[in-house]
Structures are given as C-alpha cells and as structure tokens.
Design a protein that fits this description.
CATH topology of one domain: Gyrase A, domain 2
Protein name: Fimbrial assembly protein (PilN)
Mean pLDDT: 87
InterPro entries: Extracell_DNA_Util/SecSys_Comp (IPR052534), PilN (IPR007813)
Helix content: 55-70%
Radius of gyration: 51 Å
CATH class of one domain: Alpha Beta
Organism: Citrobacter werkmanii
Order of helices and strands: HEEHEEE
Distance between the termini: 139 Å
Pfam family, one: PilN
Keywords: Membrane, Transmembrane, Transmembrane helix
Structural class: alpha+beta
C-alpha cells in the first residue's frame, strides 16, 4: 500500500518562506524609496533654506550699503574739498614765493600801486621816487626768470615828481608749472 504523505505542512512552510521573502523584498524597496524621498526632501529643504538665507543676506548687505552710501558720499565730498583746499593752498604758496621774489626785485625807492593777473599776463603799476630806481626796476624785471617783460607800458612823471610806471609781464614757459 502506498503510504500517504501529507505535503500540506511542507507547502505551507514553503509558502510562508516565499511570502516572507517577497514581503521583505517589497518592504525593503518601499523603505529604500521612502528613505531616498526623505533624503531628497531634506536636501531640497536645506537648499531652499540656504537660498533664502543668501537672499536675506544679500538684502541686508544692500540695505547696509544703501545706509552707508550717504556717509560715503559725504566723505568723498569732504575729501574733494580737502583736495581743493590743498590745491588752493599750494597755488597760494607758489604765488607767495613768486610775489616774494618780485618784491625783492623792487628797489627801495619803488612801490606797487596795482597788480593784476589775467590769462598768463601779470601787470604791474606803481611809482618810483626817481628815474634811476625806475631804470633799476626795469633791468631787474628783464633779468628775472619767472616772467618775460613784454614791452614797458606808459611811464610818466606826476605832479609830485614821482615816476609812474606800468609793466606787462608774460609767464615764462619754463616756469608754467610754478603757477
């Protein structure tokens, strides 16, 4: 007689093993896809936060620069004013030296009554006590290096015996930078 073999427990065990295998496989796949999705979302969230922080930082920087702009413009304006004052002072000092040299050229019996400067021409008007002082002044003006004597202007003697003179001097090309 043939013995009957009950394969039901073996089939159930095989079925449970197969179900367990596929359950673990699909569960692992599901967990893996959930993990990848969570990681992607967290990375995306961090990138969004970083982008928002960068935008916020840029806006703060723009606001800070905008707040600094008037102060920087004021400092620039002050610097330009200081530069203009320094330039004016340098020009004044150079003129002071030139005028000092011109004053040293004047004989003791001569004095200036008017001095004008226009477009590279210096006009000197004044008086001398005698003709010798006038001649010495003209000689000194011809010899000095800063200006060239164009032509003597009118020279006349007034009622008190003083000689009135008018000279026109042109700035020398070699000393243009001094003025």
């Amino acid at each position: 007689m043939i013995a009957t073999i009950n394969l039901l427990p073996w089939r159930q065990t095989r079925r449970y093993i197969c179900l367990r295998f596929w359950a673990v496989f699909f569960s692992a796949a599901l967990l893996l896809s959930i993990g990848v999705t969570l990681i992607y979302n967290s990375v995306f969230s961090v990138e969004n936060r970083v982008a928002l922080l960068l935008v916020e930082a840029e806006n703060k920087r723009i606001a800070a620069l905008t707040a600094l702009k008037p102060r920087l413009q004021q400092r620039l304006q002050q610097w330009q004013q200081v530069q203009a004052r320094n330039k004016q002072r340098d020009q004044t000092q150079s003129w002071q030296q030139i005028l000092q040299q011109l004053a040293e050229l004047l004989p003791e019996q001569a004095w200036l009554t008017k001095m004008t400067w226009q477009q590279g021409t210096l006009e000197l008007t004044g008086n001398t006590l005698n003709f010798a002082a006038l001649k010495a002044l003209e000689t000194q003006l011809r010899q000095q290096p800063l200006f060239t004597l164009n032509r003597p202007g009118e020279t006349q003697q007034d009622a008190q015996g003083r000689w009135q003179f008018h000279y026109r001097l042109t700035r020398s090309d070699t000393h243009d930078n001094a003025l």
